[in-house]
Amino acid sequence: MKAASGGLFVLASLLFLAVHARPATGADHVTGADRNPAAARPAIAADHPLTLDDAIQLALRKNEDLVIERESLAAARAAVTRANGAYDPLLQIDGTWSKTSEPFNSAVSGTAPDQLGPEQKTGEGGAALQQLLPTGGSLSLRARGSRETTEDPLALLSPAYRTRVGAELRQPLLRDRGTDAARLSVRVANADRQGATATLNRAVTETVAAVERAYWTLVASRQEVDVREEAVRLAEEQLGETRARMETGAAPKTEIAQPRAELERRRGELFASDEALARAENALKLLILGGVADPLWTQHIAPVEEAQLEVVPVDVSASLNRALANRPEITIASAVVNRRHAETAFARDGVWPSLDAVVSYDRFGLAGSANPGGSVGTLPSNLDGRFDKSFESLGRGDFNAVRAGLVLGLPILNRAARGNAAVARHVERQAEASVDKTRKTIQAEVLDAAAALETAGQRIEAAKTGREAAEVQLSAERDRYETGLSTNFLVLTRQNDLSRARLDEISALTDYRMARTEMARATGSLIEDRGIDVGGKAR
Q: How many CB atoms lie within 10 A of CB 198?
C-alpha cells in the first residue's frame, strides 16, 4: 500500500513538471545546453601551478601589511640608536678675537692724559668635551688658550699667553639619580623595539594563517567544482537513458521532465560554484600579489597540494604552555608594561628635590714678554716665554683651583611631579591588567582551537564513511533502475546524496586543515613550524 502511494506521488510530480515544462516538438527536442553542458559556463583555465610554500613566500615578500610592520620595526630600531645618542660625547671648539678699549674713571688709568682707558687685544680659543654618564651625572673636560696685548702700563706681560685645563663632575644624589630623561628615552625605545618586533611577528603569523586559509579554501572550491561537474555529468547520463527509453516506448514522454529539470538545477549550482571559485582565487591573489601590474592577476591559480593528511591527537596542556610562552600578543603587552615601568620610575624620581654634587679641578698657565710700556721691573724667569712656557707652568701645577659643592633645588608643594607620579602608577597598573587579560584571551583561543581541531578530525572519518555509503547506494539504485525496479526520482536523489557526501568530505578535510592552521596560530608556533624568521622571509 505504501509502495503504491509512493508511486502515485512520483507520477503526480512528473505530470506537474511536464505541464509546466517548455513545450517540445518531440522526444529529440533538446536545447543547445543539453547537447553541450559546458558551453553555458566559462572554462576554468588553471595555468599557474602554486604550492602552499610558494604562496607563503609571495605573501611575505609582497604583502603591504608586512611592509608597514617592517618599516615600523626599522623605525623602532632607529629610535633606540637615537636614544643611545644621548651618551655620545659632545666636542665643542670655539675661537674668538676681540679689541677692547674701556674707559676708566681713575687718575691712575696708566694712559696718556687725553685717554680714559688702555686698548686691549685678545685672541682666544678653546675646546670642551662633555659626556653624559649612565649614573645620570655628567663629566666635562675643558681646555683654553689665549694671547693678550695691552697698552696698560700696569700690566706685567704684553703679549701674555694664558692656558687652562680642567675637569668637572656633576652627579645627582636625589632627583635623576635612579633614572633621568636620557635613561627613560633608552628604556622606552627598547620597549618600543620589543613591541615592534613582536608586532611584526604577529603580522607574519596572521599573514601566513590567512594565506593558508585562502589556499585551502581555493583547493576546496576547485574540488567543489569537480563535484558539481560530476553531478551534471550524471544528470546528463540519466537524461540520455530516459530519452532512450522514451524512444523504445519503455517510458512515457513526460518521464524526461524530471531529469531535465534536475540537470538545469545542477548547472545552476555549478555556475554558483564557479563564482565561488573565482572569489576564492581573488582572495588568495589579494594576499600574495604585489602591485596591480603583476601578470598573475590575469592568470588562474592551480593549487598543487591536496587536503589529505593524517589526523593527530591534540595535547591541550602542552599547547597552552606553548601559547603562553610564544604568542607575540603577550610580548606586545609586556613591552607596554616595560615602558610604563620606566615612565613610573621617572615620574616617581621626579618627586624628589634636586641635589647635585659638583666637583671640579682646573690648572692655569701663564707666560709672556715684559710689557714694554709697563713700570714693572725685572720679569720672573718662570714667566718669560711664549705658549710653550705657559704650558710648562701648566704642567708644574703652579696655579690651580679645586671646587666641591652641593646644589639643592627644593620645589615648593611640587604638585605637578606628584600628579605625574600618580598618573604613571595608574597607567602602569592598567598595562599589567592588560597582560593578564591577554593571557586569558589566548588561553580561551587555544581551548577553542583544540576543540575545533578535535571535532574536525572526527568529522573526516564520518564524512568518508558517508561518502562510501552514498556511492554504494547510488550503484544499487542504478542497478534497480536498469531492471525497471526504480525511478528517475530515486536515482537522481541518490546522485544528490552522493554529491552532498562528497562535499561534506571536502568540507571536513578543509576544515581540519584550517583547524591545524588555527591551532598553530593560537599556540604561537606557526612561524616556527613553517620555517620563517622574524623578518618574514621563508628559509
A: 21
In angstroms, rounded to a whole number, what is the distance separating the alpha carbons of residues 182 and 168? 20
Q: At 167, which helix (H) or strand (E)?
A: strand 157-172
Query: What is the tens place of the pLDDT at every residue in 189-201?
Result: 999 999 999 999 9
The tens digit of pLDDT for each residue in 421-447 reads: 999 999 999 999 999 999 999 999 999
Task: Tell me the backbone φ, ψ of residue 102, rounded to 5 degrees.
Answer: -100, 135
Work out the angle between the directed axes of helices 64-84 and 181-248 (0-180°, nearest 10).
170
Burial of 275 (0-12, 13-18, 19+ CB in 10 A): exposed
Global pTM? 0.76
425: number of Cβ within 10 Å:
15
Whether 421 and 350 have beta carbons less than 8 Å apart is answered as yes
Confidence check: pLDDT of 372 > 50: yes
Closest CA to 172 of 39, 352, 306, 25: 352
DSSP 234-300: HHHHHHHHHHHHHHHTSS-GGGGHHHHHHHHHHHHHHHHHHHHHHHHHHHHHHHH--STT-GGGGS-
Q: Report how far residue 441's alpha carbon sits from residue 436's, in angstroms, rounded to the nearest whole number.
A: 9
